[in-house]
Amino acid sequence: MLSRPDTLPSVVRRMTAGRMLLGGASVEAVAEALHLSLQTVRRYKAIVDEGGLDALGKMGVGGRASVLDREALDWIAAALRGPARAHGFESDTWTNARLRELIERRYGVRYSRVYIWQIATNLGLGHLLSKSRR
Description:
Oligomer: single chain
Low-confidence stretches: none
Helix content: 55-70%
Structural class: mainly alpha
InterPro entries: Homeodomain-like_sf
Number of helices: 6
Pfam families: HTH_23 (PF13384)
Organism: Caballeronia zhejiangensis
Protein name: Transposase
């Protein structure tokens, strides 16, 4: 259920940026097309210019290891596939804030909005999180 590092959305987007840069796209065009910051694309360009796509591919995915083990991630995936109402929320819609609250209630850890999105995305379920704040 968990993605391999080379299939993580952030890695796929990084490699797409590298290919676009090698193909002659400007830093600005890549940043706009892939919704990346100019600073990030400039960093990718420097890496590609120095060592090619291989160097870009060897970049780590960052962050420390999650406290959530495989069993916890499987539980989270199952929860996301069902209605949020089943976990005490007012409607069936899943939001980042609701998933964050659920993880905190169940596992006693509080993650940033970005990491919550990354968990859902790594599970292949990021599309289930509504853009709504609550």
